[in-house]
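Quick illustration, no need to memorize.
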Amino acid sequence: MSGKKVFHVQTVLGLVDVNELGRTLTHEHVSATVAEKPEVFYRPAPDNVASLPSFNDKTITLENAGIVRQYPYSNVFNMAFQDSFSHQAVVEDLKIFKNSGGGTIVENTCPGIGRNVEFMVHASKAAGLHIIAGTGFYVKEAYRGHEALLGSSVEELAKTIRTDLTEGCPEKPEVKCGVIAEVGSGWPISVFEKRAIQATAIVQAELGCGASFHPGRDSGAPEEIARIYLEAGGAKDKAVLSHLDRTLHTKEDLLSFAETGFYCQYDLFGQETSLYQLNNQVDMPSDAERVNRIKWLVEDGRADKITVAHDIHTKHRLLNYGGHGYAHILLNVVPQMRVKGLSDDVINGILIRNPRTWLGVDPNYQPKAITLL
């Protein structure tokens, strides 16, 4: 026996050696209550669009797919990502991801936006791939009406996260989470959201697991999240900052944030519509621009701090509804990366080695007790 350390990660079907994960999408959803959280996600379409009969059809067809793509958060059928239609389409899509060389999905739906562990187990078995469930707390608006939760202490929030990771999910106790994700905040960061970030840091330090953060839609949000998390004792090399596509737009801002030591995540691949409904002051970059920004990091010597995904959470992005699907990065973006000069070694690092390092837990990890001042 070699005595080599085997790092592992908890999937919905049990512990897995991280070397078995393969190509990994680090920020996806297979089920979420997007439609049921209008205060978080819904945005009205312009009157002339909303009045089009086809736009309000209770399906997505050739007649309305283009309009839905422009205004995805205005069509309730499209936003319903917790129904039988989306679940069937998701499973078929995941099979294509698997057959295209994919290995693992990191599912970022935490409690509050419809985590569905039962469906994750089904999808993992049906598609023959690994799914890692997330825990944590999303943006404050997702818990409107839950005043007791919003008033919870850091310790109480940490207890919930810890339980999901070490004992099992309340809705399916035999399944444990394997990552703290996605931990959401708006801008400015609310008191509740700050406590959730601090609770994440505490549990991360105790367990040595990975954590991922959803920033508010402001260029100052990523560094503020990093500051709160690091000051609370979280490890920089186990933290991912999501959605940099729509948050940091200049080379200077991106490389400045990269100095925190966090993983820089581009997870909106496949969104090729410049109109960004959730912040219409931002031009959503194209996939080509995303790859260019990834190149900035590679050229700065940070190829080992990049992760990628699609953040699929609406029907129109699934293949069955005319979208790009979970295999889009493998089928379409990887060739584009090569054309733009990224080596296969760098690409394999982004898709395999970096997720493996972020997610893997050292079996000899020594817990760090954190006490907030």
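Residues 24-178+244-359 form a domain with the TIM Barrel fold (CATH 3.20.20.140).
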